[in-house]
Amino acid sequence: MSTNIAYDRLWLALKRSRPIAFGLFLARMTGNPKAAIVLSQLAHWTRTGRDVAQTNGWIFKTQQQWWLETGLSRAELDTARRRLRNLGFVEETLAGRPATLWYRMNLPNIARALEVCRKEALPVELTFEFMRAPERAVRDLLGPTTAYHRILADVTGGVNAGLLLSRLLQLQRKSVESGYPWFSLTALNWQEDLALNRRSLENAKDKLKELGLVQEFYLNRGAKRVYTQVDPALLCKLLEAQFASQAAARKRAEVEGLATTRRHQAFQMSRGEPGQTMPQAGPAPANVRNRQTGNAKPEISDCGIRTLQIAGNMHSSLPDSSTSIRDTTTGPNTATTTTHARAREAVLQRNESVVVDLDSLLWPDVLPQESRQGAITILGYAPTAVRQTLLDEFGARARRQSVENPLGYLRRLVLLAQQGRFVPELAHLEEQRRRNLVAVSASVRAAEAVVAAKACPGPQPSSKEEGRARIAELRAVMAERRARP
After folding, report:
1. DSSP of 159-196, one letter per residue?
2. 2-24, pLDDT tens digit by residue?
3. pTM surpassing 0.70?
4. Burial level of 348, CB count in 10 A (0-12/13-18/19+)?
5. CB 97 within 8 A of CB 313
6. Distance (Å, rounded) from C-alpha 38 to C-alpha 140?
7. Using CA atoms, how far apart are residues 215 and 212, in angstroms rounded to an integer?
8. Fewer CB within 10 A of the terminal residue: the chain, N end or C end?
9. pLDDT (tens digit, 9 = 90+) per residue, 325-363?
């Protein structure tokens, strides 16, 4: 009874994470588990991505987003990408300004590989429209899947170990429902299911054994078989600890990000340098003692799919400073700066922001006029370099869908910018729209000027040749008159 309760707690804990549908046929096609994870995730975003239809199947993903979704490091991701490119399953391109990497599934090549994998007599037709069709039809064609839990890669310390543990849990659940908790698979079965070769399989098993998550025993009945069982109680404890650690890290990052930004703004106002980011290393002013807070900016980014634009695509990397202003001192050789110190203390007490170049911002017409003063106050907390980008992001989002609380949405964008987590998705569209309006206005003014000139032609200045010819004609007429009797 206690074992069943432990399994129930384990299934409930795993529901807190979003798994990846790891395609078993895709693993056989690629021959590599990490390449199959990337291809499975691309298949998911191709089916469910919001802007994929507008970009003709192209998907934008940063390396940070791949790590958050799959747990693959940069080296592992590069190896998986190279394998998928060599097999012809994935296309890559650089687009935007600055150039960013976009991915697209090569559906004809994948369809031919599925024919071989499924041993189909009839040709397999795999199109983009079919991938966007109801999920059941796509699932039937792509074959069975297993739930790869990204959180297990953090618990076990590796993607292969996390994938193996995810598959073990799926088999464990089936065996528990049948009444016998032990199950057995051969190395050939693991090779067919997860594309794990013998060496990778043994290394992943060794990691799980070191953590005490799996138990094995050997049974020799004509052929030596290995029977395996997962320890649900220990895994549940490790999961709870991992979830708690992630929640604490997110909370600490938010609190420290806000505190650091406010202290930094106060320091800028006290020095009279609004809108500048202090470097982390350099000579400090004589009346200020700089201390390093030690808080690290979390490498977290929103996993969004941006609309593909060959020009005007933006990707922002916001500067952040961990400089902490704790105290102001004056020495015998230093002039007392009471004005700056009092200004800094007043800002800290009143929690004011540094408002710089807010008058030169270009406001979108979708922001109500009565909300503009509140928006100015909110944007005062944002870094100067990204204020216009934040406004453009809000304007483009408001044009696509109704924003019930404009100031609340803008406040959220500013908070992300303070933490260094703001990545513009639609701001380039608003900037391009503004350029188009300027170009259209200039064209209209030029056309109106041409029409006005044709309707009311004014006196045109004559050239030197025309003047000389006219003078010659006048002299000839005068000479004829003199010659008359």
Report:
1. HHHHHHHHHHHHHHHHHHHHT---EE--HHHHHHHH--
2. 667 777 888 888 888 888 999 88
3. no
4. middle
5. yes
6. 20
7. 7
8. C
9. 333 333 334 333 333 334 333 333 333 333 446 777 888
**Amino acid identity at 164:** L
Percentages helix, strand, coil for the chain (3-state, rounded to 5) are 55, 10, 35
Q: Which residue has the tokens 């794990």?
A: 196
Virtual torsion, Cα 454, 456, 459, 462, nearest 10 deg = 10
Domain boundaries, the chain: 353-456
Count of H-run helices and E-run strands, the chain: 19, 10
CA distances from 120 to 112, 114, 136, 137 (A): 10, 8, 19, 16
Which is it for the CA torsion 476, 478, 481, 482, positive or negative?
negative
DSSP E strand boundaries for 194-315: 214-221, 223-230, 288-292
Strand positions, DSSP E, 140-266: 145-148, 183-184, 214-221, 223-230
Residue type, 292: Q
